[in-house]
Amino acid sequence: MLVAVADIGGGVQLEEALVGAGLAAKWDVGQADGPRGKLAYEAVVLDADHLGDRLLEIVDAWRTHDSVPGVVAIGSSPTARELAPQARVTLLAPSASTPTLVTALREAIKLRLTGGLRWPVMRAALKLPPATNEPASWAATLLHARNVDLEIARTALRWHAPHYATPTALLDQLREERVLTVPELETAAKLDGTLTVQSMVRVGPLDPQASARLLWALASMGAIDLTPEIRDVATPARRALDEVRANLRAREKRLERSTYYDVLELSPLAEYPEIEAAYRLVGVRYAPSVLERYDLSELASSIAPTWELVEKARTVLVDDAARGRYTDWLRQNLKSLQTRWAIDIPSIKTAADAFARGQRALGDGDAHRAMSDFAMACRHHPNHPDYEANLAWVRFRIQVAAGKPQAECAAVERANVEVVIAGCKPWPRALVALAMLCAAGGDADAARWHLAVALSIDPNVPAAAALAQRLGLRR
């Protein structure tokens, strides 16, 4: 046992306590800030209060050291209490009894080969000598990994069960070196960054036990990344999943203490056909039949309550008697609610008229007049996706015409629109405006993505055809 504690009094006291408990322990202040040199300890006690916000870094350094010791931390500071769970390390109070410390150390030793998905840890778990992570070592390492103690693989992966598995360039190298079996290659082919570890274990053709061992090995080698969110949107599938997750989160937040009009994104003027059309549009993005196509990990539990609220809103708003009672309830409780849509009728009409004038002005080439009208629409109906997105687009055009940097202005206005439409149903005109801002900022992939969604809902939305042709989007 290594006592890597900075304080001489605390270090000596811990060493004596562990030796008195029958353990071979040594205090070394030189290791208090991380491993130095070649060491051969089964466990290390860290000084969490001394390390402060470096705790995560130093725990990781010990876990990737060739000796792969188990790690226990001693400390009582707020920083230590906050970071210890993130570091997945047991944190004991300085006043902890010797039997408690011994128990924690023995548990850390038992789990030391599961504390991190790293190449040195994997080699140690396989009882192989240290080696460089390079082709010459891969075949033998993978051969042993296929028979590793299943509990080691399962325990190491348990921390990452809800994380998405995304291939790295190293996986391509493993394929080129032909060190994977055919069933392993078939399983690896499904690693596209949209499935979590818990899904990949069951996806086949390998059985769950073999899949767990393979994922453990690939992650330890760096052939796959395991991340709690989508790693990047480099593929359409990952972009789609990333957008679904972002919208679900934003919708839950946006609809907190809101109204049924906000659920369907309708004004109180809406009649039956508009309510049904809005219900269908919300379903395009949030219906269970749509969301269940995705591996949503921890957000899967949001599907049912999200849609139940939509169904309830539709049921009330299409029933005249129920809608009347709901209107009476709103009058009494509106001040305690947050709403974008349950606003007064004159404001709704004024905003709609101003937006229509702005569209005509934009069509006539008068951007300044269009901006004035769109701004009026936004003042009377704040956070309306169409109004805000078109105002952002015109504001961008005017700024660029005044000599401001195009990419910088596009990025700012794009971010503004993304905030407004997050968690909403798809609004075609807003999405076209967003696509134009993405294109102006140099992100053609995002522009094509938003434009495709807009055209799938309304093939005749203004400006969409010209932009689609410019971006080479097939319709």
Describe what this molecule looks like in 3D.
By secondary structure, this protein is mainly alpha-helical. Strand 4, helix 4 (78-87) and strand 5 (90-92) form a beta-alpha-beta unit. The strands form 2 sheets. The chain has a 5-stranded parallel sheet with strand order 2-1-3-4-5, sandwiched between helices. Strands 6-7 form a two-stranded antiparallel sheet. It is built from 25 helices and 7 strands. The protein has 4 domains: 2-110, Rossmann fold, CATH 3.40.50.2300; 120-227, no CATH class; 236-336, Helix Hairpins (Orthogonal Bundle); 345-471, Serine Threonine Protein Phosphatase 5, Tetratricopeptide repeat, CATH 1.25.40.10. 60% of the residues lie in helices and 5% in strands. It has helices at 8-20, 48-51, 55-63, 78-87, 98-110, 119-125, 135-145, 150-158, 169-177, 182-188, 197-203, 208-221, 236-254, 260-264, 272-286, 288-291, 303-317, 320-333, 345-363, 367-380, 385-401, 406-421, 428-440, 444-457, 464-471, and strands at 2-4, 26-27, 43-47, 70-74, 90-92, 164-167, 224-227.
